[in-house]
């Protein structure tokens, strides 16, 4: 019995001792002005690395170690606060001035926003998640000044086109450099938006010069989430959405097509009344016309799509070990059959503190794609004669309706008719070692690798659209391997002497890129069900090919940051790059930059004024470059050709490839001037930035067409100049802020003037390639359509060689004749300006987001507007064409004796103003109250519905002009329901 008492006494002592060692501190953090709860606030035990983050309700709970009495509260955009640790803490944080202490990620480091000297646009992960998308870049469309983002098509997993401050190169790549957690990563579509902590866009030469040759087209830096110490947190997000085509203009109906063909033959005198129908229609067509039987093939092909995403992420860790892990499954079914994408991705980020001066970690991502694509059938459907139906009375597909040569547009959807499947595995792994041996000194080594393995198989039977004119099927297999290595070493040293603050950064970088490819194909697969899996069973056309590319880049970089009293800021950067792609003697180039900033609002003479809470002037200049050519462009290649001495004896022969090598290739260089102003008004309720820039690019890496007498078709040379100049404005406003209601707005405006300054011989236009001095890189050059010649203008039309009903174009030089000298640049594919307006409303537990995007001043070549067959041999767009009884000024008179290509100025029909304004996103959400969450045993729960790409306002009817004019793979709108849960 005594032993039991002793044991109980001992247990009580141990318990009391343990309680004395630590105790639990709980509390809640809110905004001091509005009372709004603040999630993700860092709560740290002062003097230790022990800490947690507040949950979605602003609550926190942590163990206070023995002997510690203070907690430190930090949150982006709020002043840091230190308070004694007590039970049931009610912490109120004050907003800091314009979030000046917010950390912004720049090349090889971070900097406070107040100390930033260059042009950098930043957006946080919460903003990125507002628009449910396949590609994270689509979700920031119109939200980043100076960044032009468009969707390439509406197919599942379609790529996104991104340019920063216009097109600098003419034929070289203009896409930005993507850096994910410090490592180059081209496949931005792999990233799960829920994994992103922040995104920064480096735009001017001061910020991009540290990336040298890789940063000439801008740099987009993505920082993913990290683990935090404390109790593990599990976040689950999911949404399901239904998509539909965002407007699709109709082709002619059966009666409309019949009227077109009748009119085309009336013009030639072959048709005068319905009694003449047997002269122009066959028996099948006559029967369908009589019974009014016809088909809209586009409607048969286009269906509703489905998009769904399921994501789970967990973060946690101890004082020394922090882990973040996520899994994401994304599935998109396109609006066309056989158009499907499945994406599986996982991310694991680990940070391990070894001791006071050593830290290691790894960031990794594994992504797997299973994608089925198809040859777009809408081109076939839109020209197909609508008379008749695609299926017979038994419901079987009629492969060649009307006994014609044109195959049914639905042919590819039949079993074993067509298959195009690509499976891709991509792995990104980046390991780092970080040493801090001395105060202010940090040494970091990053080793990154990207491994990609892609296999694509294509089978097209003789009953498919692609092989409908061939006698056999075709099977093809494409294999691609890629290995990208990156090894970078970074040394930074920060030191202060009184009010003088210095920061030094040194970088060495080694990049190696290797690609391998192989291709196999055959024709006449014995068993169609084998598709492309048994190529040896093809009976003819067996062919193989393979390829190999390798390139390396070596770089050395230095940067000096200096500030005096925190208000006079200077930055100097120099980078030297050596590229294996360029010629000996031209492989190396040096890229310098300088930037200065003056924090005017910190001056003594600004203390008495009440207008500006923040005011900073920035000026930068720098040079960046690019080596964006294919490896081995400096040498000429050989290719094998068939050759024989006579009718029976063959020999192996070779010829020089189409592109000849250039032994003098060097860097393409861009010099950029930038003047910027950051401001805050009314204690930060209105804040923003204005940037004006001028980028001049010379020694363009231009693929130049050569005369046929040279024996080759092209060569890449350093010739030509371009210029991009513009203005960017970003404004953030807090319109209303009370305890129950908050309304904030973000306005973005970008205007860029892109122009070619010089070409091959300096001042001569390259009409063949469509390049013109003083105009953007991509323009439309043609005759200017001003209407249709009318009957009252018959005499004037005859003088020019035309007649009433023909297309009328402008005589630009008033010469009295229409010739090639009357062609002009009609418009450009790039906009004159673009912008976005984002509004966030929050009332109690409800939140509403409305986002409007505009892209103004670009021209498109509308495939629909140009889809007019004057002979009536194919279907046409439903347009208002000229007849003697209907003197339209829109489209010419149908003419059965005149082919489409032979119709004068027929191409002018397609040029349209492609400007648009669209409601990009409307999202309504509800966050459950604390009382309800307690009953559900959850930390946070939010339900929401979203409409994406809901309304488009433009001059182009029933079409989303963001697509650029093409009728294939139309863009979509989507309706989404989703939830976010935190445990």
UniProtKB/TrEMBL annotation:
Top-level taxon: Bacteria
User: Could you tell me the membrane topology recorded for this protein?
Assistant: Multi-pass membrane protein
Sorted UniProt keywords:
Cell outer membrane, Membrane, Signal, TonB box, Transmembrane, Transmembrane beta strand, Transport
Where does it live in the cell?
Cell outer membrane
User: What are the annotated GO cellular component locations?
Assistant: cell outer membrane
According to the UniProt entry, where is the signal peptide? 1-20
Domain named TonB-dependent receptor plug is located at 112-219
Chief localization: membrane
**InterPro entries on file:** Beta-barrel_TonB (IPR000531), Beta-barrel_TonB_sf (IPR036942), CarboxyPept-like_regulatory (IPR008969), Plug_dom (IPR012910), Plug_dom_sf (IPR037066), TonB-dep_OMP_SusC/RagA (IPR023996), TonB-dep_OMP_SusC/RagA_CS (IPR023997), TonB-dep_rcpt-like (IPR039426)
TonB-dependent receptor-like beta-barrel domain segment(s): 379-950
Pfam families in alphabetical order: CarbopepD_reg_2, Plug, TonB_dep_Rec_b-barrel
User: What family does this belong to?
Assistant: Belongs to the TonB-dependent receptor family.
Q: Which NCBIfam families match?
A: OMP_RagA_SusC, SusC_RagA_signa
**Name the UniProt record assigns to this protein:** TonB-linked SusC/RagA family outer membrane protein
- Species, as recorded: Chitinophaga dinghuensis
